[in-house]
Structure formats: structure tokens, C-alpha cells
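Here we describe the complex-level prediction in full. Unlike the single-chain runs in Section 2.1, the two entities below were treated as one system.
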Amino acid sequence: MLYREAGQFKSSYAADQQIFPIRQDRIAVGALLIAAFVVVPLIANQYWFSAILTPLLILALATLGLNILTGYAGQLSLGTAAFMAIGAFMTYNFELRIPGMPILVSFALAGLCAAAVGIVFGLPSLRIKGFYLAVATLACQFFVLWALQRFGWFSNHSSSGVITAQKVVILGYAFESAASKYLLTLTIVSVMALAAKNLARSETGRAFMAVRDMDIAAEVIGIPMMKTKLLAFAISSFYCGVAGALYAFCYLGTVEPEAFNLDLSFRVLFMVIIGGVGSVLGSFLGATFITLLPIFLNVLFGAISHLSGFQIPHAWLSNIELIIFGALIVFFLIVEPHGLARLWQIAKEKLRLWPFPH
Amino acid sequence: MGFFFEVFVGGLLAGVMYSLVALGFVLIYKASGVFNFAQGAMVFFAALTFVSLVERGVNFWLALVITLAVMVVLGIAIEKVVLRPLINQPPITLFMATIGLTFVLEGLSQLVWGSQPHGLELGIPDVPMEWLSQSTGVNISQFDVFAAVVAGVMVATLALFFQYTRIGRALRAVADDHQAALAVGIPLKNIWAIVWTVAGFVALVAGLMWGARNGVQYALTFIALKALPVLLIGGFESVPGAILGGLIIGATEKLAEVYIGPYFGGGIESWFAYVVALLFLLVRPEGLFGEKRIERV
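The structure predicted for the assembly as a whole is:
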């Protein structure tokens, strides 16, 4: 009833091929965008902007990047954080070394640098696959972090490789308040999500999926393996690089290479799996879930100790949170291995008939 | 030349320590196709449990038995709670589940035993063997040799166990093909519980060795990352591969640290092993002894 496509006839190719062919989807996406661009800035406060919403969007962008590689092209990678680090440090260097460099151009160039490194570390994917590849991408993770710490050039010879992001200025307007940074992030993320959504249904996206489902069969039907796999690595790394740049410039401000450690890679991978492999929507859902979970647990424990009057020692607290986080992930994988995006699909099936199932 | 030899042998012996950890990965991957990222956490968990028991005045051997019992219970619990509901899921899902398990184990062990580092004394001092130093001038640590012997004994035992016992044959059958094994009446869940228990035992031994070496502390969980290149070289399914891979990684890593490291300003050990493994993979994509997969459309 609520979500019924019956009666929506498509009478032209353009109507058939639009991104959201169902009217309800268009309305929902439009409403969501209006909410994110207009309503949220009106009601959210400083804490929400700088501690929750901005990192959430940035991590969603990184998740989207990994999802293109893992979800669409089927290549497992554990080096996401390294590509983010490249994005952050190269943006810093472009801003530092080229006077008057527009920040958006720096973001894009840093993304391209990450893409170049992605291609280099994607080369083994032509020979190896599965977990062998996953472990091989760890090489990228360790090597990049080592290089960023080792060679002072990247951090302008600051001690222990810490960089302080320059001011974000676009056309004379300085993005300084948390709300403006949120809006900038939101704009970039929206545009790139749209691009990803389009990529998934383009020829390239279909080639990715063919490679994912069976690469030998894909090769037989004439999909160039090298080009497709390396392109997947490049696009994915570009997304992660831009996400990393935003991570440094719109979220943290001051970063060291260690901020992009293996933990971050794993967190992004969790977001992909929990959200839904091979789904743009899933990337956002997964990022939301994994970002909000620790905050929720924190609040919950705060409430429990407040109500019961029993002060849980701090050392316990972090360990209990770790246990619950791990257990919830296992639980989620058991209950819904296809991720939150799949739950949404099931909900749509239900809404199609609800409230009159017969 | 003496120095080269010393570095080389030291590297080989350090490699054996990597093999000990890699062995746990191989066992589980071989029998269930699960890439068990929680192996590092299991090593930490076992070592911390053991050392905490000993510090509370429990006899050395009794503590060993108790820890072993704990690892058995843990193995069975993991099979029941995590693996069985996830049968037939894609490997990446199982992999993610073991990362979740890693968090649980790390949190649990530190919650129960506290997070301060412990020292562990096995009674074998980490000093050069005197007779060897005097006769040839080469310094080789007594402890490293002991660890190598332990690892050798363990591999031999496991190899015999896999080859000649009833359970070992069942394990190999399961590794070959889950469904075919089920069809001829091999109880899959028992086999998985046994494999995880054996992996727990291997984790305990690795934990004791590494704990005695570097102290029992949170950093112990990271040795799993050291063991991964070993797997790449040796192949994920091969016990001898884990040993040989460990030796190769250990030796090249130590030699590179001494002879190549200074040109880069040191600190290359965090990634050098991975690069070696990558170069290896370019020649042999499934590792030295990994199963060659024939792919058909």
C-alpha cells in the first residue's frame, strides 16, 4: 500500500533508466536530503555536528569506497585506512607547497594520489584472490604508515609526523564553524554517493559485478580483467582518499599517521559488512550503526551507573564495551548476514502489501 | 662471516616463533575454511590466563592443565555460538565474525585478569649458549633453541596426529570437502570443536613462548599480524608450509634489518615480511604448499 509501484508506468527509455524508478524512492531520497541539508542544521548543536554527524558522513564515504572494491568488484581489502592517510597527508602537502591552491582541487588531487597508490597495491589482485589478497593489502597498510612516519617531507618535518590541517576556504568563505564543516562534508558526500550510485549501474559497474561473481567467466565474455580490477582499486582508493582528506580537514584538524591504523581499516570493513555488501544505502546504514554503537553503549552505561549508584571502574567499562561491540557484530552476522540493507529490502517487501496483505 | 651466520640462525629461530602462531591459523583454515583472525587474541588469552594463575600461586603444571581446560571450553563454545549458526555463509562473513570474536576475547581477558603487563619465566634463560660462543664465536640464544625444539615437536606430533589417527583422518576428510565428509558420516560439529581445541592448545604454546620472550601484554595480540606473511608464503592449508614460511620470513627479515634496514633509516620490519611474501606470491599465487585451485567456468 505505502510502497507500491503498481500504476507507475514507464513510457520512455529515460523514465525506465532513471536512478530511482519508483516514485516513493524519489520522495524518500528527496526528503532525506532536505532533512540533512535544512532540518539538521536548524536543530543540531555543536556536539552533534563535530562529534557524530561529520565523522559519520566521512566514514560513510570511506565505506562507500571500500564497498565499491569489496562489494561490487569482489576484492577484499584491509588497507582502507592507508588510502585515507594518503588523502589526508597529500591534501596537507598540496595546500602547504602550492600557494593559493583551492582546497577542493587539493582534495581531488589527493584522491588521485591515493588512486595511484591503490593501483600499485592492486597489482597483486591480478594474480591472487580471496584471503591471500586481503593479507597482501595489509602490506599497503603497514608500508604507507611507515613511509608517512619515516619520511619527514610528508608532514613538513614535524615531530612524530603530526600535521595540522590548514583552514578550509572556498571562494573566500572560511569553513570554521562545526555546522559549516558538516554542510561541506555533506555536499561532497552526497555528490560522491550519487556518482557511486551511477557507477554501479553503468557499464563499469556491471563489469565489476561480473568480475565479483566469477572472474574467469567475466574474462571469457570479454571483460578486460586487468583494466577492471585496477579501475576498481583506483576508484575505491579515490573515495577513501577524499574521505581521509575530509577526516583530517573537516573532522580532526590535527592528525598523525597512527590515526589511520589497522583498527580504522577494520572499522570501515565492519561498516561494509554490517551495512550490506554491494549496496550504496548499506554503506550509510553500516557507518551509522558502527559510529553510533559505542556512543550508545557509553550513554547506556552512564545511565546504568547513574541509576544504580554503582560506579563501574573505568578500566572495566572500556573492556565491557569491547566485549559487547564484538558480541553484537557476531550476533548481527548470525541474524542478518546480508546486512542492514537487506533488512530494508525486507521491510520494503512488507510495506508493499501492508496494511492489506491479501 | 660469523656475524652473518649469527644473524641468519637468529632469524631462523625467530621464524620458528612465527610458525608457532601461523600453525594455529593453518589448522583452523585447513579444517573449516575459516580465516581465524582471533588466533592472536587466543594466544593472548591463553598466555594471560596461564600467567595470572601462576602469579596467584598455582603450581606450574596445574596452571598448564587448567589453562588447557579453559582453551578446550573456549574452543567448544566458539564452535557452538559462533560457527554453527554461520555454516554455509561466505568466507568473508566468517572472517568478520572472527574479528568480532577478537574483540570479545581481548575484552574478556583484560576484564578478568586486568590489563597490566606480566613477566613470564619458563626456567630457560634468554642467554647465548656458552659452549657454542666459545668454540665458534657465534652467539645463539638458548631460549630460541628451546622454542625451536618445542615447535618441531609440536609439528611432528600434529603431522602424526593428522596422518595416523582416526580423528586426524576425519579432519583431513573435512578439510577436503565438508559435504562429502558429512555424507560418509563424519560428525562435522565434533570435528570443528576438536580443531578449535587443538588450535587453542597451539595458541597456549605460542603464548607461553612469546610471553616468556616479550612479556605477557596486550601487544601479544599483534603477533598474529606477524604470522600472516608466513601464511602467504607457506600456503593457508599447509602445516609444513607454516614452518618453512616461518623460517623464510624469519631469516630474510633479520638479514634485511641488519643489511638493508640502515639505508631506509630502520623500522622496516613492520612491512618487510609482507613485501617478501608479495614477491613470493607473484611466482606462486597459492604459496609454497597451498592447494592449487583449478578454476572452471
